[in-house]
Inverse folding.
């Protein structure tokens, strides 16, 4: 008998019994250690071979809350240990860059996640983006764009939201296809042209370069392709001109309700949704379930 479906995985009574046996066999194991052992036992891995630890921990917690298993108490983090914190705001400034796009080419676009430049990227976004820095969840990449050694832009890409009505209608995929193939969409979480840069057409030019670079980097780092890009625009603040100039398509608007909303009423700003297909057969590829 099936007792739970989580992130596309169906958990049966036999699976619950196996997890209960795993907990009994390792009574002193932490929740993370149990998750890693379960991933290994089930060969539950990402396309790049990394164990699906965070997804597995979510599954274990869901089973625990439903009363199917009893997890060990969650351990409090060590107050003396390392913590993820909001990046410090930077006081660094560079000379103004103005003029024509051709004057600052070629651009250097570098993927800086897990590199020596990641802290600079984080601090620039925290300081100069109106939303500040938010740590991406799941698969994500960060790009720092420079011209003649001077930073001019920052772009962060992450896993896409699972439920987005206007995007789902545009693609036309089923709920099953969405659960299976959502990983083939990348979400533009942050896009920042730095305030000392005044170069017409730069923003749309970078988006065009990103559309060519990102699929290769994603496949190299995460072991699977992306077929579609998407982002949100706050129409009260921006028109999304650079996205439109780079041939992104307006898909619709959000409902203004979060994923956990129970009131059916807007409780946050309504955003415009834009998308960019990376290949002609993107609908067919995203809709495959076999």
């Amino acid at each position: 008998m099936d007792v739970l479906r989580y992130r596309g995985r169906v958990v049966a009574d036999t699976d619950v019994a196996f997890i209960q046996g795993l907990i009994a066999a390792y009574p002193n194991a932490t929740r993370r250690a149990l998750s890693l052992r379960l991933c290994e036992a089930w060969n539950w891995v990402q396309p790049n071979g990394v164990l699906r630890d965070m997804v597995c921990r979510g599954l274990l917690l869901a089973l625990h809350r439903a009363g199917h298993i009893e997890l060990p108490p969650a351990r409090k983090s060590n107050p003396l240990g390392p913590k993820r914190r909001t990046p410090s705001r930077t006081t660094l400034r560079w000379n103004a860059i103005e003029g024509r796009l051709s004057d600052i080419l070629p651009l250097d676009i570098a993927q800086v996640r897990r590199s020596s430049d990641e802290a600079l990227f984080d601090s620039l976004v925290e300081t100069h983006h109106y939303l500040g820095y938010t740590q991406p969840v799941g698969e994500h990449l960060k790009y720092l764009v420079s011209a003649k050694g001077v930073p001019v832009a920052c772009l962060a890409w992450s896993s896409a939201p699972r439920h987005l009505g206007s995007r789902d209608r545009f693609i036309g995929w089923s709920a099953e296809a969405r659960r299976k193939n959502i990983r083939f969409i990348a979400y533009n979480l942050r896009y920042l042209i730095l305030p000392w840069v005044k170069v017409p057409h730069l923003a749309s030019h970078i988006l065009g370069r990103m559309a060519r670079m990102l699929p290769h980097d994603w496949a190299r780092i995460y072991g699977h392709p992306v077929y579609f890009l998407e982002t949100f625009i706050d129409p009260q603040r921006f028109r999304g001109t650079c996205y439109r100039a780079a041939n992104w398509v307006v898909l619709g608007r959000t409902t203004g309700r979060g994923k956990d909303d129970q009131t059916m009423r807007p409780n946050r700003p309504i955003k415009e949704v834009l998308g960019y297909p990376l290949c002609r057969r993107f609908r067919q590829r995203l809709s495959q379930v076999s």
Notes: The CA atoms of residues 258 and 267 lie 8 Å apart. The chain has two domains: 2-65, 97-287. The chain has a mean pLDDT of 89. The chain is about 35% helix and 20% strand.
